[in-house]
Amino acid sequence: MQRAKMTPLRAGVALIGLLGLLAAFYAVSANGAAHVRAVMTAKNKTLGQTILVNRNGRTLYSLSVERNGRFICTSSCVSVWKPLVVAKGSVPTGAAHLSAVQRPDGRRQVAYRGRPLYTFSGDMRAGDVKGNGFKDVGVWRPATVSAPHSSPAPSPPGGGYGYGG
């Protein structure tokens, strides 16, 4: 087999590609944060609203009494309501008004308009909103893409789980 000779044009293209990769690496390193698409939006037929979902299409919820770093769902609660977390140093993307807040256990949880986001273990597939309206120490609602003080969605029949926070 004969080895292909590197022409000046090929060498230039390879060098430009390598420089592009290095520039991308240093841009992320200099910023100190990798952008991670943690959230997407989806039109929910049951609610008739656009809601936030995780990368698997599962509905994201917030608890009415959690806001700006105040966590209620910390112990047995997290077995039913799974926090949406991102790695340290990453920035959640996918919708406006996202941030990351530090949980009491040290993990960084994605928040929408200051409210930490969770999935509900009772939702079995994309589009389910079975956690809507559950009450315990507050009320769980799907995170909707709307004004921050919109009226809440109607509660489904039934109650909450009665676990402690």
Using only C-alpha atoms, the radius of gyration works out to: 21 Å
Measured by DSSP, the beta-strand proportion falls in 25-35%
Q: Compute the average pLDDT.
A: 80
Oligomer class: single chain
Largest sheet: 4 strands, antiparallel
* Helix percent band: 10-25%
Category by helix and strand content: alpha+beta
Give the domain tally.
2
Low-pLDDT ranges? 17-30, 149-165
Number of helices: 1
Total beta strand runs? 12
The shape, in one word, is: globular
What are the secondary-structure elements, in order, as H or E? HEEEEEEEEEEEE
Termini separation (Å)?
Answer: 69 Å
What does this protein look like?
By secondary structure, the protein is α+β, with helices and mostly antiparallel strands. It has 2 domains: 27 residues; 105 residues, no CATH class. The protein is built from 1 helix and 12 strands, in the order αββββββββββββ. Strands 6, 8, 9 and 10 form a 4-stranded antiparallel beta sheet that branches. A hairpin with a 2-residue loop joins strand 9 and strand 10. The radius of gyration is 21 Å and the shape is globular. The C terminus is likely disordered.
Could you give a short description of this structure?
This protein has one helix at residues 8-31, and strands spanning 34-37, 40-44, 49-53, 61-63, 81-83, 85-86, 90-93, 98-102, 108-112, 115-116, 118-120, 140-142. It is an alpha+beta fold and 165 residues long.
What secondary-structure arrangement, pairings included, does this model have?
Layout: H1 8-31, E1 34-37, E2 40-44, E3 49-53, E4 61-63, E5 81-83, E6 85-86, E7 90-93, E8 98-102, E9 108-112, E10 115-116, E11 118-120, E12 140-142
Parallel strand pairs: 1-7
Antiparallel strand pairs: 2-3, 4-12, 5-11, 6-9, 8-9, 9-10
